[in-house]
Fold:
Amino acid sequence: MKTIRLLTLFLAVATVSLLAGCGNEGKSANPPATISVEPGDGNVVVTFLAESGVEYWLFYAPSSALDSTNFNTLPGGKVIIQAVSPQVVQGLQNGTTYYFTMNGRTDHGPGGSGTALVSATPRSAGGVWNLGQPLATADLRGAAFGSTFVVVGTGGTMFSSANGVSWTPINFVVASDLNAVFYGIGRYIAVGAGGVILQSADAVTWSQAGSGTSQHLYAGTSNGIVYVAVGANGVYAASADGQTWGVGNAGTTRDLAGLAYGNGRWVAVGAGGTIVTSTDTAAWQVAASQTVADLKAVTYAPAAAMFVAVGAGGTVVTSPDGVNWTARPAVTQTTLTGVGFGSQFAAVGDTGAVFTSADGTAWQAVASGTSSDLKTVAFGNYRFVTAGAAGSNLYAK
Structure:
């Protein structure tokens, strides 16, 4: 116990000494002239003009009483030592206003005076959409995020982007239309017409795998153990490594357009309101979807413990377990073709339709700034990315 008390005392003294500059020859330095804070989804990005040789500390708290000396006395007060621009501050609560100040020092000296307070309020991605430059004349049909965004489309079109804003063509030649791309187990999988399957560990170097089927594949996902793709006439293909695939039928002859995994269950959706589910990808059961509308996409939100499927005529159906479904009021007359989840749901569709929902049941229309048909949506890097007809693409953070 004595040793523990001495260690605790040592750590306390060390912390105080660090904040005071440890008595070395370092000096205070001027803080940045200004700092800018841009809110995101559960985060903010702090930018400032750094001076060579100066170490900057960033203090923040959900309190306007914040300064560079009292941050550790305020609830939620924190400091980032050796902040660099742009500095991403994560783990923030959406809807809560945070305040920020910075100071500077040299050679680990004591901090100088802080900047004037600036504030920002993080908010769920999906509320404000930004239109990107068309990526191609091809239609983009699938999007995914792993360590980077990837979009795929007709004629084997493929692009990647770290931020959903600046895109780079992927130089892999395949003539088949690519309908979907997904990520899991450290690998991207793209699927498409005639059963084509491509795989990549880095979104740069791709190879083709034999799917064992000539049926069109329209969607896929991974549960972290196995990859599964679904498609025309109820076909499904499964693989543990992305290279060797087994093929079967998911208990229907209907085309399956969307696939999600959650709560220990695979859920595939498709034509005529078809929903089939499986816990092992071997045995599939038909679920009552409560709709006859074509279903185009499905997602699972762990935070909401909810499956959401969307489709023709603005159809939305939801389920807590993938088996028992509830039809929700149509949100539009437009066909919805993609749905994803970040800290809220986002659904996209024809004529630039974008809708968001916190719970999957109450939806709000959001201006997208485009009339292009949007075919797919993905979430990653604190933002949504959607893409569609004639290379159209947007992002929302």
